[in-house]
Amino acid sequence: MREILHLQVGQCGNQIGCNFWEVISEEHGISQNGEYEGDSELQLERINVYFNESSESRFVPRAVLVDLEPGTMDTIRSGKLGKLFNPNSFTFGENGAGNNWAKGYYTEGAELVDETMDVIRKEAEGCDCMQGFQIVHSLGGGTGSGMGTLLITKIREEYPDRMMCPYSIIPSPKVSNTVLEPYNATLSIHQLLDNSDEVMCIDNEALMNICFNTLKLKDPKFKDLNRLVSSVMSGITASLRFPGQLNSDLRKLAVNLVPFPRLHFFLIGYAPLTSINSTGYNSLSVSEITNQMFDPRNMMAACDPRHGKYLTASAIYRGRIAEKEVGDEIVKIQSKKSDNFIEWIPNNIKHTICDIPPKGEKISGTFLGNNTCIQEMFKRIGTNFSLMFKRKAFVHWYIDEGMDELEFTEAESNMNDIINEYQTYQEASLEDIFDQYYDDEEDQEYGNEEEEEEYEEEEEGEYEDEYERESGEEELSDDDEEYEEENIN
């Protein structure tokens, strides 16, 4: 079985993570005590992806829960899911990270990381064939951003061939908890660029917009945001947890969505979006679900897909839906929004159908898009970062934890590079891609020619040495000449 190991880091990550486990436990018929109470064989067919069956026939989440302070862990243990998790899966510190990325990465987090890695190893050893990791964390705080990216780096070093799929909650000035968020987010993205394979971008600003404008909530709470995120996570993982035709594991998902290694940050859309009170009262057609999924107002990141172009996209439908009906709707969307798709990757929308719908809905859809407009999110973070960093505001808090100021500069530079890369591919034509391909081929051929010339020169030298030895014309060393003179005399 292709298992996935789930990590939830920091207060935000643990709250969303627990919501996720609550949702998928219900979908798989698992009670709060870990006992199976379902009524369908499909619920158990691939349950081992996220759950480990104990010797007592209890299903235990493949999860590691991490925080740098004990409060969140105490809340989870005493909550309704407290008996679901393995007690040995909790790792926590005592001092917290104080919303400081450097504390999470260099000091407080570094003290806890070895203990956490031991727990991760034990969970990994319990897997037959682990496909990878998913981690839920916030980029705005100290623990989720700092220790979250530290764990990602350590896991990448120890499991380099396993997939890494973070669900990253992106901070926003409109839903801000701390003034240090631009620093924390920029330093985190710097790490995610190099050490992750597919990043699900979930933006607090977009979540608030959805709550106000689509769900018509007058005073949205964090529990409303968490409910949205857990619904999206359930939709994305449906093809991993239940039988489906496409994207049945994390690697296949990446193969379909990541055309270039660094461009692995995804927009997420979901439909239908309904308030808690109206769930179960709305029934939408496949056409309406498809249009909602591609609607900018349903995107979980505060950037407009109409300002960029889709490199690739994937639509995950849930419910009893005809394959032909879905295929026809995807063709309609691609022809209707043809200007929003790049021309040099044909048929770049993939889709899959999972027969089991989420609770309270007959059908639903989750959308993943690799769109160049994601650079808007990076620009927003980068602008706020630059405003503070050019005055060196709050930098001393990071330096005091062992950071070098050069790391800020490197992170900012890496952020600017990824923005430029997205812009380059947005503006690229088919001819540009061909030119780039042939330039790379020529560089490779030129490199091969140089290697061949060096090889021929080495071979030629070896043949000359061999010829001299055979003909006896090899120059004698001083010691050899003295030896010959002594023998002659």
Automatic annotation (TrEMBL):
One of its GO terms (molecular function) is metal ion binding. It comes from the Eukaryota. Dimer of alpha and beta chains. A typical microtubule is a hollow water-filled tube with an outer diameter of 25 nm and an inner diameter of 15 nM. Alpha-beta heterodimers associate head-to-tail to form protofilaments running lengthwise along the microtubule wall with the beta-tubulin subunit facing the microtubule plus end conferring a structural polarity. Microtubules usually have 13 protofilaments but different protofilament numbers can be found in some organisms and specialized cells. Residues 246-383 form the Tubulin/FtsZ 2-layer sandwich domain. Keywords: Cytoplasm, Cytoskeleton, GTP-binding, Magnesium, Metal-binding, Microtubule, Nucleotide-binding. It comes from Anaeramoeba flamelloides. Tubulin is the major constituent of microtubules, a cylinder consisting of laterally associated linear protofilaments composed of alpha- and beta-tubulin heterodimers. Microtubules grow by the addition of GTP-tubulin dimers to the microtubule end, where a stabilizing cap forms. Below the cap, tubulin dimers are in GDP-bound state, owing to GTPase activity of alpha-tubulin. This is Tubulin beta chain. One of its GO terms (biological process) is microtubule-based process. Coiled coil: none annotated. It is found in: Cytoplasm, Cytoskeleton.
